[in-house]
Amino acid sequence: MNKLNNTNSLDIPENYLVTPMYVFFLIHSMQIGVGILGFEKYLVEKAGYDAWISILIAGVFLHLILWMIYRLLQNGGGDIVQIHKNVFGKYIGGFLSLVFSLYFLLLTFTVIITFIEVIKVWVFPSLQVWIFVFVLLSLVYYLVSGGFRVITGVCLISVFIGLPLLLLKYFPVQAGHSLNVYPVISHSVTDILAATKQSILSFIGLEFLLIYYPFIKNPAKSKKWAHFAVFYTTMIYLISLIVTFVYFSEEQLKQVLWGTISAWKIVEFPFIERFEYVGIAMWLYVILPNICLGLWGATRIPKRLFNIKQKYVLIAFILVLFFPAAILEGRPVIDAVNNLSGQAGFYVLLYIPVLLVLKTISDKVRKKREG
Amino acid sequence: MWKWKRKEKSSTEQTQQKSKQKKSLTEFIQSLQNSEDFVCYSLGGENECTISYIKTMSDSKILNRSVLPILNDGIFQSIEEIKQNIPVENMTVTEDIDLIQEKVMFGYIMIQLSNSAKEVLLIPAVSLEARQVSIPEVEFSVVGPKEAFVETLNTNINLIRKRLPLPQLTIKELTIGKVTKTRVAVIFVDGVVDPKNVETVTQRLEDIEFDQLIDSSFISQILADNSNSPFPQFLDTERPDRVVSNLIEGKVAIMADGAPHALTCPTTVVELFGASDDYFVPWHLATVFRLIRLFAVIFSVLSTPLYVAVLTYHHEMIPGELMATIVSSRADIPFPPILEVIVLELTIELLREAGARLPTKIGQTIGIVGGIVIGTAAVDAGLTSNVLLIIVALSALASFTTPIYQIGNTIRLIRFPFIIGAQMWGLIGVSMCMVFFIGHLVKLQSIGRPFFEPIYPLRVHDLKDSFVRLPFSKQTERPTLMRTKDSQRMDASRANAKRDIDE
Amino acid sequence: MKAKIFLVSLIAVSLLSGCIDHSSVEENAIIQMAGYDKGENKRIRGTVSIPQYEGSGEGSPATEVYLTASADGVKEVEEEIQKQSSKPISIGKLSVTLYSMELAEEGISDIIDILSRDPRISRNMFLGIVDGDTKDVIESKPSSSQESTSSRHLKGLIDTNTQYNFPKTNLHRFLYSYYAEGMDPFLPIIIPKDSTVELDGLAFFKGGAVVGTIPESKSFPFRMLKENFKRGMQKINFEGGTIMLDNIGSSVNYEMKGTVDDPEFDIKIDLKAEVNEMVGINREATPALAKEIEKASVDFFEKNADELIQMFKEKEIDPLGLGNFAKTRKRNFDLTKWKDNYSDLKVNVKINVEITEYGIFS
Known about the structure:
A: Amino acid/polyamine transporter I, about 0% strand, globular, B: alpha+beta, 3 domains, five-stranded antiparallel β-sheet, 17 helices, about 50% helix, disordered N terminus, transmembrane helix (chain A), transmembrane (chain A), Spore_GerAB (chain A), transport (chain A)
């Protein structure tokens, strides 16, 4: 055990660490992204009004995954790069870590193009995408170059700014039909599980813990915060789903691409109508942590692997993101990218238990050899 | 390349300094004699001593009453003997040419036994023209103390010390500014302050390489962690009571001679919006006032950008009832909203600048002329809309609610990027600007401590005195930001002891 | 150096951003009301009203401009109207859309599809069926109107009356029941009269076409069946005279009994009302009289409710959403089976009327 810890090459100076409480914000803000704006349609297509069960199952599943991630990290001697190195050796491990880096980059990319799609559909059909992406990415560069602490701050602010948006759920509830919410399970288990898979796709984001774990002060204490974050996210998804159930009829929901944004449309104040514009503008704060943390994670892995400056990797990755994001458009492409990253996320989540088993075996083998 | 050049430069500087040191007393006197107000004469009689001083800086009363009679009456063999006989405190006998130069320039009287003697007696006879302590003008408050700092450091320290009679109140003095040789005091309460903060401040002060230090704002700019930021990273106050209360919280204060302001640090962005009035009124009122001020700041920054965004891109957002008002007021205006807003905002800024530069009485007139005449005329001429005029006037008014002048300037300025953002991408542009500024605030530090503090890092304890102000009994600890050595303010259990009915 | 590059690029970007086409509010022709009639040769004739705001409007009444165009589809109508307008047309503030009965009876599914698709359209928009020409309703502001424009007048008309006798309606509610399984939408009917425009009854849809209507007198009972509400008045015949019941709170509760194949519905309604006017009845206001009035009104409402439900069964429509209700309560709900059985569905309406006050003078 001690020997393992000695191989830990990660000594992050104390002033770059964050307290355990921030794990809550890091995980929660990463889990909430563009997905929540339109996840209802996909769930309802699969499991109808019973999709709420799928959300709960997905929540439980994620708690399990989270537990495994902590098991992995607790005596893993650092982050995913270290674990991969210990389990698979330098080359295969390094390759797997690189795959993770690319996966993080893909997530970031998905968030960016989906958000741009939302803007184009709802606000500016004739948006000059490349300028927008350029400004957005320069902003992201500014934030990410501030380091992990700044990103944590962005996560925190994003959660706070997202809170008032939750209150807006009151309007659709008031206008809706409460009789829709009635626990009748009329779908088969396979349907519900299919919807569960679908909802896990919108829940991904906690796997970033694998890379920022060394930045947490007293990581053991952060466990409860992490679980609390997953629980909170599940609840928010559940509430959003129920609210859209109340507001839309089942068959209508299948037609509605962006359930949450459509529900904002009825928010009315004496001085402002049509809240979806404000909502989409404020959603920038909600997706920003996804982009920042995603890019940070994606660039951190090459830094750890090849010992190159993260700044250079960051610039390179931003350029990599810029061109496709500026060019790609159209619903089919974006759907395809979303599907791809969702699938990738699903397999990454499934990979975690496998890795845990492999790691336990390799640890035991190593112990035997030493003993 | 540049490094090498810099090295060269510093080496030439060093040689210059060396040559200065070599300069002798006679050369010093000779160079002073070019000025008409320098007096240097030999006393006749038995003591053949030379008296030199700068007429405009020295108090002739001391010379006439305490020095000349004694020199005329007695016979002295040594300079030490003179020192013992002259009834003036704090005299020094020295050969150090640097000290002599410094003191004489400040108004000390220099006495030499003979023209060529190297050892001199320096008699303090400084006559300083100082302003009376007056009421604060920038941070005026209706209730509470009405003393403000003046331009003399000694008076200012006096104002602080009399409120804080503690031996632990420590004052470190440094001389900064190659040419101006300004006295700068670093003030803190030993035992409460985090020594690291004092160290950072003194370290940075010592590193200042600048020839002049006219005001404390020079320090705040040079010392700032990020000098490109529009946000002031030091709290700039003219109220001694505020400085004292900051010192007790564990902050460090910096004062410069000649500046009627003190800088306290570390500070946070939230603190910049707090007024000292907040502590003089009951806590619920103070809380409401603070929230109003917060709202005013947000309104001031965002109102015109939102106007541009909504009118240019999102007119679906205007409620039907408001539509008629807005559209009919805009109907005759030939400019797009962005131009209209920029013209009007610039007009307001113009008025403000003009008002600030002109003497008070004319300044007021300018305000009235500008506000009423230009505003009405612009609307009548169909250059701006009524609605916008109201919005701009209100946002200007709202920006005046900031108690600290420096942050008021910041708010004045950061509105413009928001307006450009609004013109680019409507609400999303505004949102992007906001993200930039929030990110900037998260990044920013005040002498190495987080500037965005009670929000990020989130410290619930410090939130008690930020957007709200809870009663004093709830604030049992000093702010966590300062990492003070003695965090307890009072005995919490005694302060909050509950009494039963009729006890 | 970096900062300089950034600044330069920022300026360049902001200059380029002129690319997003924009025009400020007053440069748009903001359509507030639109109406669709059947035109010649199966075309659609669309009429829109665009308010004109006078400059520095010191209470100057706004006027409206009306544009009419015929085309094959709704979007084409928009395009045709654009050809007539000097300003770009904006449909974001559309607050009332009307369809002529003629058109609605043939089906307006295509139009509805567009409404649900366009992100610019408000979900709080009112829809209405005009018994006659929508063009006439839109273009003639009634002389009795309290509002400055006819679009505001109609919006106010529907808005106010759906707080009284007419059930709540807007685009979202319409789409909700249009798409829902086991639920059919309805819209208020508007008829132009000599000097005014009136809300006059409800039109019931099956799919996208109107199949039945009820007169204004039956909309109170329908609303009682449909939703809870707190206002509205109903006239009841009583002993040769009439009584005005002033609703102060009506609540409805559905309950489903039986199996999926043989369901039975209980609809319970509690109505609290005041009696403020009795015409042609010369009796003291006593508790006994109240009991009798309660009895009479229960009979009245039950009869009306049964008639309504009977009518729904005949037309095979379900504006009350009983099918939708059944679907959320029972497993294995089968829509086709439900539709087959719908005409035999047992619906028991139980009404309880409570008269609480007789006004302040007794």
